[in-house]
Every structure is written in structure tokens, then in C-alpha cells.
Amino acid sequence: MTSGAEQAQVDGGRRLRQLATVHVAVLKRATPKKLADLKALGIDSVLDLVTTYPRRYLDRTRKLDVKSAAIGDEATFLATVTSASGRSLGGRRSVVELTVHDGSGSLAVVFFNQPWRVQQLKSGTLALFFGKVGDFRGTRQMTNPVVDVVAHEGEEVHSDRLLRFVPVYPSSGKVRLTSYDLGQLMGEALRRAGAFADPLPPLLRQELDLIDRTSAMNQIHQPESEHEADAARRRLAFDELLRLQLALGLRRAVLQRSARGFTHLPIDLETSTRNDASLVSQLLDQLPFPLTGAQMRVLAEVSGDLSQSLPMHRLLQGDVGSGKTIIALLALLSVADSGSQGALMVPTEVLAEQHAQSLRTLVAGLVHKDGRPFCLELLTGRTRVAERRRILEDLRTGTVDVVVGTHALLTGDVAFKELGLAVIDEQHRFGVEQRAALKDRGGQKRDPDLLVMTATPIPRTAAMVLFGDLDVSVLDELPPGRTPITTHWARTDLEELAAWAAVRQAIDRGEQAYVVCPLVEGSDRVAASAATQVVDELSATHLVDLTLGLVHGQMKADQRRQTMEAFRSREVQVLIATTVIEVGIDVPNATVMVILDAAHFGIAQLHQLRGRVGRGALASTCFLLGEARTEDARTRLEAMEATTDGFALAEVDLQLRGEGTILGARQKGTSDLRLATLATDGDLLVLARDVAAQLLVDHPFLSGLEVMSEELRLLLDEDEAEFLFKS
Ligand code: ADP
Ligand code: MG
């Protein structure tokens, strides 16, 4: 902001990029001390400064009478000091005591360790005092309030002009810079910046009922009213969300432009039209149940993607037990029918083993049109060397139709003849990088289709941010015949005893139960030893005389498989497990689950765990044990009691934890979200998404929207910007 630049109002206003190149040191109020503080706050450029938004506002318009203020009120008084005295409490400690009066009554105001207040607030001084009215031995008192001196004795004041919204900036204990100082710097910066260039066309702004950028920047820092602050926040939060959605839309467009996909056969579900020799047809014929309406709808969506030349990028969200596996399998079979290979990847080897096992049962006896048996293989780190060599060879020659494994399949020495479809199960964090790894598979001319499946329902808003570049399908219907799970949080010893009694009753009825061990901090080994301890305790107490089995992540695969098999065959009555049972285990005869120390699990995890019961026609119960030490923990357990709807639980989770944990710190573009939050700005996000979509239609690759595209480049993650704008 040299004087030259100050006149350079390109395109009718200051660009954010210009402000990014100007250091805060140009501000007259930025003394060396303040500069050091700004630096500590991460503020270097004027852009950093003006995009440091107030955390909240002090509403000084809601002035109270001293007389009517009650203990506990947070209030602002405009009052005159009637007496002031200070004394030392020994050492560096001191106290300043005032009496202030506002015409309605008086109040005691006390400052600790601010000896200069005696000089600042002499008798006769008129000042604003903001703080909480406390109680000191039965009298009302304000301690260490925020003070703005309005006038010294004898000065004239127009008090009505003083009462307005005052911004409170995020503070840091490390620096002395006050909210007031920041506000002053902000004022200078905004004055000197003048008008801002607006990336939104005026007509669109009007249509969306958004104020212009210049007003928004000024009003967010210096609002005259709550209404002004709200309007500013809405505009600037919208800008953040719009940039995010534009980035996702651009990413999609860039990917599509460079895409070289497969044209697979569609998945034909119609008995009358389908080719009976196809693998899809064979599976449908031997399926012991009809597909649900939701499954058919999702299959139609997937089928449409498979048969188009653009690579599929689809996320399938479906609650635990909604029947996602069959969707994946039919897609994989259709790809095999079309002559290429498929991979099914899961986060852990345990899961891969379980998946392979249940899929093998489903595909038993399937043959290709030429009589060759359908071939599904499991490939993990535990696969023996010779076996591994054979599978790798068969993958290269195309003998293997589908390989099941972990994400390691995408890296290392695994080469396909031609990978036509990758299915990622139980993994909504499957990141952009991994998707890129899929795309850049060496030696392959075409990009495989991608289906990402998750049983961790993600709130709609978060999905829009996380997966804005994916199409989304939802399985919102459970297969028929499921009886809803009842959940009890056992809050007392008595209720806990009832939970164990319920386990025994279930066993008496010939049913089975799970006990989930407490979440242990530390290594797998620590968790395993804790789990062993749980078995020892339970077998001596509540579950004495029952046949218990134990599975944890440290066991050898064989041993674990044996125990699981024993549970499936009902030889083991109660399966005690660490969170390794979180996903993938399907034993419909298990009807009771007891989760120890439930308050330590997150909502998503509890929901996943609970999904292991209620998988058959039998009524199931889930008991949550242990107390909740925090308000959040209580909310979590109560939500679990109240609903089995994964999407509803995901919303609760979002409200409790904010988007940070859901999106992950590294999620591209979210670092630009300073004002917008997913938990509260859902409507704005939907609006931003729609506007982004329309803008990208009207302005392909943002052509003609120069300010917008410049801001996107400036505020997005560097790699992301590079990717989106390299072309
Ligand atoms: P998830 O979505 O959790 O992966 P699964 O695919 O494992 O769910 O399916 C859960 C159970 O429901 C399995 O035992 C599966 O065989 C069964 N299932 C799937 N679809 C149907 C259906 N349409 N009718 C009845 N049972 C079904
Ligand atoms: Mg599954």
C-alpha cells in the first residue's frame, strides 16, 4: 500500500492479491512492538490482518442500568467514577478499587494487578465498563472489566454515539496486543484499502441477497448493529464456501477433461433382458434374497457410470447392514463380464480376510462365458511368498478377476493386466492423493472406475466439502426383516448387572453376544493385554461358565480366524473383542452387545460397533457401560440411546466436534474456512454449491471471472491451485 498502489484501483477496487503483497509494517499504528505481536499471531500481510475476523462482538447497545443489573449478568455500563483508590498487596500484586455511578445506582469495580488504573480512572472520569457482574461477600462487583474511557472530568460527551458494536478478536495469551489495538489497526488498514474488487457479479449478488465485498469487509470489523455484522458474516462466509465449491467443481472438470475411461457393460437387473451367461446374471439367479428398492436404485446409478466412458467417481453411503457388499460385487462382476479386472480394498488386513471369505461364498460356482471359473483372490501382507508370486503373476495375465486386499494393492509390485474398477470399502477418508495414485497407474491406457463405500454416514454438508468432486449414492433402506436395536446406557451398578443378566438370557435362548473392550491408549500390544484381562475378569464373574472367545489385532490370522469360526458355528457363546470387530463381521445370531467404557468411544465408532448386532430377524440390544465424565460424552451416549439412524448420529457428531475432525486437517481448501462452519452454515453451503455449479457452466474454467479466479489461486492450497490452474 505505497501511495502509488493506493491509487491503483484496478477494476474498481482493491484485490486481495494486492493486500497479500503488502506487509502490515506499512500501517502507521504498527509500532515495532505491535508488529512483533502481529507476527506471533501469524499476521504478516495486510490480507492476513483484514481476514482476521472478530470472534464475537460486545453489544454495547444493550446497556444496562447499574441499578437493574443482577449478579451473573454480562453488561456494559456507562458510568462515572465517584471514588478511586489503589494499594499494594505485597510483591507485584496490587488492587485498585473504584466506585462508579450511572444515575441509577452505584457499583464496585475492582482491578487486580493493574495499578495504572488509578491514574486512568480518576474520580469524575466517564467510561464504559464491560464485564460480568459478580458477587463479593453479598454485594455486586465487577472484577477486571474491559474499560473504554469516554471522557475525563469536565469533557463533554455525546454518549449515544459511543454505544455500538465492538469487535472482539481472537486473542492469544502470548501477546499483549489487545482487541482494541487490533481494531485500530484494522480501521487504518480498511481506510487505506478503500474499495474492494468484488468477485461476484452485481446481479448475482442481488439475487442471492448478499452485500458487496467492500461493505462486508468494513461491516465485519466495524458494524453499527448486529444486523450489519450478520450480513457481513453471511457474505464473507459465502465467499469462503463458494471458493471451496468452485475448487471442487474445477477439479472435477480438470479430471474429466483428461479422462480416458472404460466403457463397461451396464449391470442388467431385468430377468427378461439379461444375458444368462453373464456373471451378473448368475449371481442374481443364486441370490437368496430380492434386492431392496434402494439397492436397485443405487445399482442403476452405478451401472450408468460404468457404461459411460467418463471414469466413475462415486461415493456410496449406506448404514451398517444396508447391503453395500452386493452392490460392489455386482459392479465387479459386470466389469469382469466386460473383460477387465477389479480390486476391492479395505483399511485392514483383518477386514480383507473377512471380505474375501464372504465374497467367496457368494461367487462360488460362477463361470465366465467361456467356461473359465470366476477367480477371486485375497492378497495381503500375510499372503505366503509362493502364493503371492502366483497371484501377482495371475493378476498380470488377467487370470484373476477380482483381488481383495488393503490399499497396499495400489502401490508396490502389484500390476494388473487391466484394472477396470477399484472399490474402496469402509473408507471415506480415501484421499485425493490415493485417487491420483489410481489414475496414474503405470502402463495402463485407461483410468479405472472408482467406487468408494462408507458405513460412516457423513453429514450432507461435510460430504459436499469432502466429496464435492464425487457423485454420491445413498442406500437409505435396510433389507427387510431387521428388528431395530434397543440401546441402554447402564448408568448405575444395578443397570450394569441387568446388562450382564441380559447376556446370560440371550445365551440361554441360544443366541450369542459381543463384549467390546475399552479403548486403550497405546500400542496394539497394550490393547491386547487389556483385552486378555477383560476375559479373565468376566470369566470369573459375570460370564462365569460361558464359553468365551477373544479376538484382538495382535493375534495371528489363523488363530483369529479359528475363534471367529467358532463364534459363527455357535461354539463360542460370547465373543470378547477389541475394535477389530468394528466392521465386516456378520453373525445374525448375535443379539446382545456390551460396550465397556463406552464414553471413551466416538459416536461413529459406537455406531459401527453396534451395527454388529441387529443383523437378523431377532430383536437385539446394545448396552453402553460406564459413566460419562464430560458433557460431550453424555450427549454422545444419549444420542446413541435415542437413535440408530447413522445420519442423525453423524449430525450430532458434527455439532459436537466441529468439522475439523471430520474433514481432517489436511483436507484441501478447508484452511480457507475462517468464518464458515459446516455445523451451522449448511444452507449457505448448499447455496454456494449451486452457485458454483452455475458459474462453472456459464464461465468454463472461470473464464471471464478474473477476480474470482485470482482469489481462488491465492487462497487455495498451493498444490491444489497448481493442479487446477496448470492448464
Ligand atoms: P454393509 O452395507 O454393512 O456392508 P452387507 O453388505 O454386509 O452390509 O449386508 C449385510 C447383510 O445383509 C448381509 O448378511 C447381506 O447378505 C444381507 N443383505 C444384503 N442385501 C439384502 C437384501 N436385499 N435382502 C436381505 N438381506 C440382504
Ligand atoms: Mg460392508
Please give the structural blueprint.
Layout: H1 3-7, H2 16-20, H3 32-40, H4 46-50, E1 56-59, E2 74-90, E3 93-101, E4 106-112, H5 117-120, E5 126-136, E6 139-143, E7 146-151, E8 165-168, H6 179-193, H7 202-208, H8 213-221, H9 226-257, H10 279-286, H11 293-306, E9 313-318, H12 324-337, E10 341-346, H13 349-363, E11 376-379, H14 385-397, E12 402-406, E13 419-424, H15 432-439, E14 449-454, H16 460-466, E15 471-475, E16 485-490, H17 493-508, E17 512-516, H18 524-540, E18 548-551, H19 557-568, E19 574-577, E20 590-595, H20 603-610, E21 620-625, H21 631-642, H22 646-663, H23 682-698, H24 706-715, H25 718-725
Parallel strand pairs: 4-6, 9-14, 9-15, 10-12, 10-13, 11-12, 13-14, 16-21, 17-19, 17-20, 18-19, 20-21
Antiparallel strand pairs: 1-8, 2-3, 2-5, 3-4, 5-6, 5-7
Helix pairs in contact: 8-9, 9-23, 9-24, 9-25, 11-12, 21-22, 24-25
Magnesium ion (MG) is lined by residues 324-325, 425.
CATH class term of the largest domain = Alpha Beta
Mean pLDDT equals 86
What ligands can be seen in this structure?
Answer: adenosine-5'-diphosphate, magnesium ion
- Taken as a percent bin, the fraction of beta residues is 15-25%
CATH topology of the largest domain: Rossmann fold
Give the strand line-up of the largest sheet.
11-12-10-13-14-9-15
What count of structural domains?
A: 4
Low-confidence stretches: 1-11, 665-669
Major sheet: 7 strands, parallel
- The general outline is globular
Number of strands: 21
Number of continuous helical runs: 25
C-alpha Rg, in Å? Answer: 32 Å
CATH homology group of the largest domain: P-loop containing nucleotide triphosphate hydrolases
Examine the secondary-structure arrangement and name the CATH architecture of the largest domain: 3-Layer(aba) Sandwich
